[in-house]
Automatic annotation (TrEMBL), chains A, B:
Name of the protein: Malate/lactate/ureidoglycolate dehydrogenase, LDH2 family
GO molecular function, one term: oxidoreductase activity
Nucleotide-binding recorded as keyword: no
Species assigned in the record: Modicisalibacter xianhensis
Keyword Oxidoreductase assigned: yes
Keywords from the named record: Oxidoreductase
Family: Belongs to the LDH2/MDH2 oxidoreductase family.
Domain of life, source organism: Bacteria
Length: 339, 339
């Protein structure tokens, strides 16, 4: 068993802030990124938690993101706000755009926030839950580096293109889902490789486009979209709406930053907000109750609602703090210390 | 080989119109329904073609829809138009709402058309393509009668809940997809039953919630969502957005009309429109070209774009007319004749 360390949420927050400040991130970016990695760590989404600080610092060192970028808010149309992240983290751009998105959706019934030119590493559930916390329903989507072949295709073209949705539940944790449109995350293939295990059928194809269960052949080839041609279609929609529609890149045009300062790690993200108030007026409370009957019917069948494990983890972390590997703690502590 | 008959598009149109007029549908409804079944027949979507007229007439006879309903347009919010179909066909409601949706999306950047209380039988691709014909991107979704169990569940709760998207391609047929969020349509199960064939694994569960390949056990049980828990989540989103958000029913609250005049065949539909013009301004042409590079990359891999077969059929039908079974032609001719 690897050694672990428990941190209070306050200590984890302070550590994250020191790591970022010590590596050139300005106050506003350090706070936005810390809020995100802390929320993920609190919900035990380890892959989006404190661990991601290492990638943020590395990308900044590779000049793949600007840790001092000031996002520019553009009032594009009555129901559209754009925020140019200017090669900074998408998280600060989201925070700057959020009040405008909420205001526009509340007034118009629905609205879009388009983030451009952002470095994106976080989970989309955070952004749709920022909407459901304010009583709005939300959808978020973003393309990412190309690892996924289209259904019927042979080579990487789509990103793993996550899609997230949240619906507010009065007095309860929201109904939230957030899934990649690939069968699995690329990290799952790497875990199988490290464990020397074959992949389940249907996850990936090799470089020639043939089905493979060999992790290395899959990494050299491509992941497959979930749900066959339907998932592939959904992934195409995400490329179009969070790419060309908002004037930004397609998944296959992005590239992780490399030590020589190359790569194209910036892309777009689209967040849609729906105002229950504006759609329903005085029927709002009745139809929020109506929606509850669907959740109850799902649970009555013994099925789960998505994100329940995450909400249970949230309660645990609030009471007892977060647990991370000692090695990660040591690495972060080193990054937090002046060289 | 069953006997078939070829009809010119004009003759098919006239036949549809006679069937509807002879069965109490007013001029406006007869035209809207005829446009829809003719477009489906033209694209060789037989299950949404002329065949559907029989169901429309039957439902009207069962008092499950009002063939003389006048849709009521409600200007709900700057980016939301609602149309109450008043128990009439959703198709006339869509046509009445469309100009408002286009106007709102063009002004605001994006907008929603919510159809309430409509009898819905048509394919969603028609409605998103009505948007892409006008240069807008569109999404449409609707819940339907409950045949689908949630992932991890045991019994029908969700409709087959279709989801459609269209993106305008200058000078070309649009990029359009339209899929059910069940693994297959319920009709596929019925076809296997009639042919005495077992179902592929993963399509359905029996009444006890166990996987089944027996068509009758599947019909007594439930279909499964496509793509496991991800498809199930998407289907839940469709229930919420095209149900409670627009003040309308969930899939499990709807029921087909029955001969005794019972049933609840009316429900909601949500159509979203995105204005490329408003999102992109003077960059519109450049980013429409940019989107084309994605379609080209898909085709270059040997993968297909969705709807290509449909567009090929469209060309054939325009040149040579449509082909339907003689038995269907005879049945429609009988419905078109005064009793």
């Amino acid at each position: 068993m690897a050694q672990e360390i428990t941190l209070s949420l306050a200590d984890a927050e302070a550590l994250s802030h020191r790591v970022l400040s010590n590596n050139g991130f300005n106050q506003a970016h350090a706070e936005a990124i810390t809020r995100s990695v802390l929320a993920a760590q609190r919900d035990e989404c380890h892959s989006h938690g404190l661990y991601r600080l290492i990638g943020c610092v590395q990308t900044a060192r590779y000049r793949g993101l600007d840790p001092d970028a000031e996002p520019q808010v553009i009032d594009q149309a009555p129901s559209v706000v754009k925020v140019d992240a200017r090669r900074g983290s998408s998280l600060l751009a989201f925070e700057r755009g959020l009040p405008h998105l909420v205001e526009k959706a509340s007034r118009s019934g629905m609205a879009a926030l388009a983030i451009n030119n952002g470095f994106h590493f976080s989970a989309l559930w955070q952004e749709v839950e920022a909407l459901s916390e304010q009583g709005l329903a939300g959808i978020a989507m973003t393309p990412s580096h190309a690892y996924v072949a289209p259904a019927g295709g042979r080579s990487p073209l789509f990103g793993t293109n996550p899609f997230a949705f949240s619906w507010p539940r009065p007095g309860k944790t929201p109904y939230t889902f957030d899934f990649a449109t690939s069968v699995v995350a690329r990290g799952e293939i790497e875990l199988h490789q490290r464990a020397g295990k074959a992949l389940p059928a249907g996850w990936a194809i090799d470089r020639e486009g043939n089905p493979t269960t060999d992790p290395q052949a899959a990494l050299d080839g491509a992941l497959l979209p979930f749900g066959g041609y339907k998932g592939s279609a959904l992934s195409t929609m995400i490329e179009l709406l969070a790419g060309p529609l908002i004037g930004d890149l397609l998944g296959h045009e992005t590239q992780a930053a490399t030590p020589d300062g190359k790569g194209q790690p910036h892309h777009g993200e689209l967040i849609l907000a729906f105002s229950l108030e504006a759609f329903l007026g005085s029927d709002k409370a009745r139809h929020q109750q109506h929606a509850e009957t669907l959740f109850e019917a799902i649970l009555d069948q013994g099925a789960r609602l998505p994100s329940q494990r995450r909400f249970e983890a949230r309660e645990r972390s609030r009471a007892h703090g977060v647990i991370i590997p000692q090695t990660l703690y040591d690495e972060l502590t080193a990054l937090a210390s002046p060289a």
